[in-house]
């Protein structure tokens, strides 16, 4: 094997570089040395061989006692042999770095190596020497004020423990934007002197987790970090105070180990696996850093060790690593790994800089005053606490007030937006209705009919007058597209009223006809029967279709009831139409019957002829009714009026009857047939009268014939017109039903498409709105949080997403409606499962959360978990923290930040990746049916899908 190329010392030497306008930045490589300990007693007892040679102070070679492979050479900043003292190791491998902390540069020294290779032994020597040197340095710098403080922790089984205060339990790591990773609540003891410092370090040693393994009687089972923070300040002649602050980290890592060598089991095995895992992360970090800092993601966060040491690994610190090793042949593989790690480490470059604070005199004075004030307050804790409390309460009150104001403003904005939206909808509806070609267009046009007299009030509506398009549009907009239920019910009432009037008129017309037929035996008996039957049917129909007068108006439920009732009446109107058709047929028959019998009638007595003036005489009252009817079309009324005038006897100038017997009927006085018959023969008795009568009878016959025909024609025309109006009525009802249903639907779905098309909302705003609505509906419908996550992450506002957003919104609206309607529907299960109950839906979601909670450990690193627990306020040491975390996800649909963060976490837990094969937008396409490949479907029916992951 070819040896690792040596790193020339020139390359390792530190170089200073400067950041313009900023503090000096020292860019340098990590100082890497190797210390070889003597063979241990155990190794000697086993007659283990020394497998390594160290030719000079920098090179170490694998001796390869069996000459199986080529020699392997490793070169480092320094190689310390078996007999090298700790003093020398410190002097040449750590001192320079350690003392940097005195001048404001962070420093880290750590020992790395296999278990029992001498790390603790080495770090002890380094620490003692460093402490000695630091205090000597302080003694030699009387012009500077130094403040030293010490904190210490161990990472045992990925748990951070304070070595100066074990009782505090597991400590959390927090991210500080300025300081980087900090350990919450870590005790920091101010150091009085060197002895005190060593005493504290001894305490830490004593507190540390140590256990016996096959390789080491006192094996360190944790990583230990002792942090000595050194603050020094110098009062300059100008009055300015220059302060330095830096930390010296003394790190004794737990050793990498093989279970087979340490004979570990149980607790030791668990410790060993944690140790190895975190060392593996450290190795990965070093390896990645050695490839250049910008060589991709550095997984500092994969372990607490690397997280805490982040600034020392390629950051703002000077770092020295002492790799310890056993020379024994039995450990050669482990040692080789250590040397490979060391080789990578020496390629890592740090950017250390002086952490300096310069404060002017005034500021210092101000700070001193502030400190004095605080100290005074602390001396009298009660007023201090009460003032703190007071200020806290005041602050809280202010916040509440501010929030209330914001809420008011938001409410106002919401109401304003709502009313604008309503207006837009109305105007859009009207526009849409008028612009569209097709049935609805025709129907809307029919509604100009509404512009006639208001049958309910009997008054002429002001909106009926304009006959231009604009006026009609305005009218339609106001009456039909109104979302106001009372307006719509009012419209329905008007239609009802019209229907009743039409029925009345048809009834009256038929009554007239019936009477004529019955009293004069016009037409066949069959026709008479038909008309009588129709008359009674129409009466029945009117009774059935009568509308209850007292209906509470203005309520949505009543509106729906109205619509349902109208829908039911559709058939009634149809039957009315049918009946009117029948009437027309009957009239036609009547006409033909009348025509055929005309000649016969001419030979009948005059008393009967007189009775051919139904509308002019005996039925005048009925006729007047028809003419006066508010719904009677002007045309037919006019015709009837004309007919009435024409039928008046005085028109016949040639015939001058003596007395007024014949004129009586024209005055509207009913004439009984027997009275009439008594009267007429007295005139017919004279010859002159007979001659005159014979002429006049023919004339009369013609006249009566014309009158009768005209009457029947009038009725026919009137029936035709009634039919037309019934058709209009039908259209209007249909339109109303459609409009109301559409409005109802739009109100429920808050359909975005009905917003004014002339000024469409920008897509990104629409997208945001829809996304918020969707998030809310997901929440309301207890939709699977994996589904939510996938949808949320897949659709991020691309214009092509519009259709998916629309579909999702419609689906959810539908679900929510049905949820409300069924009362206990289970949207979360609505996929290929029948709807269950609400509780089943909630249960499904609960199961999903439990399932995801189980994945927290496997899908998130311990560090990631800790960060999340902190962020999501899961108390340390609590039970089922994973479930607590998952239960907090997707619970606040109003907060889009919460939604986003929830989605990110769930995505990690299910291994969802936007570009992956599981993430196809098509799976959210237009139907509920699962795609055949269940693996790609992560939709509504979640648990089964998860099991397929
Ligand atoms: N350079 C050395 N000279 C003499 N003895 C040493 C040297 N290094 C280590 N030893 C001894 O070897 C044994 C193991 O050393 P130490 O406990 O420091 O190893 P370690 O690497 O810290 O082990 P672990 O990782 O298991 O904690 C100790 O008894 C120690 O005194």
From TrEMBL:
Matching InterPro entries: Kinesin-like_fam (IPR027640), Kinesin_motor_CS (IPR019821), Kinesin_motor_dom (IPR001752), Kinesin_motor_dom_sf (IPR036961), NACK_C (IPR021881), P-loop_NTPase (IPR027417)
CDD domains: KISc_CENP_E (cd01374)
Annotated ATP binding sites: 113-120
GO biological process, one term: microtubule-based movement
Cellular component aspect of the GO annotation: microtubule
Start and end residues of each Kinesin motor domain: 29-348
Coiled coil regions in record: 357-427, 566-593
Residues covered by region (Disordered): 674-696
Keywords linked to the UniProt accession: ATP-binding, Coiled coil, Microtubule, Motor protein, Nucleotide-binding
Domain of life: Eukaryota
Cross-referenced PANTHER family: CENTROMERE PROTEIN E (PTHR47968), KINESIN-LIKE PROTEIN KIN-7B (PTHR47968:SF39)
Family the UniProt entry places it in: Belongs to the TRAFAC class myosin-kinesin ATPase superfamily. Kinesin family. KIN-7 subfamily.
Protein known as: Kinesin-like protein
